[in-house]
Amino acid sequence: MPEPSLAYRTVSIGAALLTGTIATVHVYWAAGGKVGLTAALPEADSGGPAFTPSPMMTLGVAAGLAGMSAAALDAHSPRMRWPLRLTTLVFLLRAVGDGRKIGLTRQAGDSPFARNDAHLYTPLCLVLAALYGVLAVRHRSQ
Known about the structure:
142 residues, mainly alpha
């Protein structure tokens, strides 16, 4: 198999670094860290968090993100095509949202989460969907 191009390797490393960093933040939260946690959880109508994930659930998210990073680093392998496509779909669905609290379809809100979702989380998910999409549909010559 030919060596991937510099651009392809750059996309691969960039996607892996982004998801790896997000995985690390989730490990920090699972270990009891509090910085940034409140602004990362959607708010219920009552004003508190819509849900409180357990440390195990948070570690599960971290493991999934770490797996995505590993897939990005091995993106040139034909066996990674479907995991990369699945990752693209996950980030695309997260960016689109649920029609209520998250993503492009969320209802207007002024909570710290809503502001972060509009300016950071949703755009980041769109960027990650694009990066993983590029990796998933690479040309046969790479």
